[in-house]
Write a structure and sequence with these properties.
The protein has 146 residues and is α+β, with helices and mostly antiparallel strands. It has helices at residues 3-13, 43-52, 57-80, 91-105, and strands at 19-25, 32-38, 111-117, 120-126, 132-138. Helices cover 41% and strands 24% of the residues. Helix 3 (57-80) runs antiparallel to helix 4. Bound molecules: zinc ion.
């Protein structure tokens, strides 16, 4: 969850309790911003929040990629995590998919496919438009065993 989303969540849950007004600076352009933050946050987290919400180009690209990574990780958990109802996936395979999020989102690699076994595959890739996709496929091999 993005930091600013955590602040919004806390405000809803605690009727504004545990939220305080702070100043932090953007990691890219150094602009100082006054923002609402969680009381327990360190200076580093406050600067991260200021960066997430800064309007400069570098910060906007950074926040976009960070959001993409978080959504990709959430999708991996949804499709391959313990709570999915369709396939059994070992933790090590889920870890591998999570590890692929960074190099794919940053454009170091185009895609990664993990062959989990029993016809199940997990794939994460970036499209030419820069959209991150997480997919789970399952081939029913039993149909070939007549
Ligand atoms: Zn900035």
């Amino acid at each position: 969850m993005m930091l600013y989303e955590q602040v919004e969540k806390r405000e809803k849950e605690a009727c504004g309790g545990g939220v305080t007004t702070v100043t932090g600076s953007c990691k890219f352009c150094g602009q100082v911003a006054t923002r609402k933050a969680l009381e327990e946050w360190s200076g580093e987290e406050i600067d991260e929040l200021a960066t997430e919400t800064c309007e400069c180009v570098d910060a906007r690209i950074y926040a976009h990629k960070k959001g993409q990574k978080e959504r990709a990780n959430a999708r991996i958990d949804l499709l391959f995590g313990k709570d999915n109802k369709s396939v059994t996936v070992p933790d090590a395979a889920v870890d591998l998919l999570h590890k692929a999020v960074y190099p794919v989102c940053e454009g170091f690699i185009q895609s990664m496919t993990v062959d989990i076994g029993n016809g199940v595959k997990g794939k994460i890739n970036i499209t030419s438009k820069g959209i991150i996709k997480v997919a789970r496929t399952k081939t029913d091999t039993s149909t070939y065993e007549a």
